[in-house]
Amino acid sequence: MKIYCVAGALAAAIFFPGGALPAEEQFNLEPASLTQLEKAVRSRGDPARGREIFLDTSDAQCANCHRLQGVGGHAGPALDSILGELDIRQLAEALVAPSRKITEGYDTYTIATTDGKILSGLKLKDSDKEVLLRDGLGKDTVIQKKQIARIEKSPVSLMPARLVSRLSRKDLVDLISFLKNPAAQLKLKGRLSRAWITGPFSRSVSRTEPFEKNPDPAKLAVSSSGKLLQWKLINARADGLIQLAGPAAVKKSSAYILALMQSDRDREAVLWLDHSSALRLLVNSETVYSSRDPAANSRLSIRLRKGWNTILSRVSNPTGNSTLGLRYEPARGLRLTADRQE
Fold this sequence. Notes:
- By secondary structure, the chain is α+β, with helices and mostly antiparallel strands.
- Helix content is 16%, strand content 34%.
- The strands form five sheets. Strands 8, 11, 13, 15, 16, 18 and 20 form a seven-stranded antiparallel β-sheet that branches. It has a five-stranded antiparallel β-sheet with strand order 6-5-4-3-7, with no helix packed on it.
- Helix 1 (31-44) packs across helix 6 and helix 2 packs across helix 6.
- It is globular.
């Protein structure tokens, strides 16, 4: 039976009442342990809560590496088709022992460079001149062949074993319940799970900055005063909202949030907005929405061109904890993301 390497590793200590495993004993692949796991997932698992755990990029970190319903990273295989092929016991093996069976095309390679660096990741490209590696955080690195001293295929999965062992026992049951519940997974569709942030800027969202004409997270954002600012990745919270945080989000200022939307053709699309403070939103450098007041579940029709489109928001941050939620009305051929990876 083919077992897949599923990101967002789930190994954790788990307690089952009623003739259960001892509280201090960790979940494992022994038959008795698997039987208790199946019973707990089917009788007490909360898929809705499990969805929040899946999206929590600080603990379980599932969405950091893998996509589900278009939400998540690109370091590992998409989970949409994989999860339907695995029962709970097979899923447990894939999560607890990720290196036992690795999905074809997701082998980890280790490269030693001539200047003494060691790099590991998925080999996305191998040409006569260069190798492209993607690490566990989804970062791509190009290494010139002339700089490679040694390259080897690793028997160890890029997915760390027991990555989320710090989750509670209830968290683990709920997370597995979500991974086995297609209806709960569908509610992920269309959400922006992470984006780029830069700032701080003046509090007024109506003021424009030069980089609005061509926002690019790979380049420095140059303010109208000449200040150079970097873009940083920021993850949405489990409730789907991006909370302004870090040096870009000081009190009584504003910050820019940048996402990318891919479309398979020129078309109309619908965005749903949730913002706790004033907001100005630009699509492909044109302002299409502006509001001084907070809004929840606000519908916005936008025009997209074929290919990649920039979705740039200037968010007021009067109290230092403003939030922004973006999601699109699901339609074939659309994707809302933080990067241009296919």
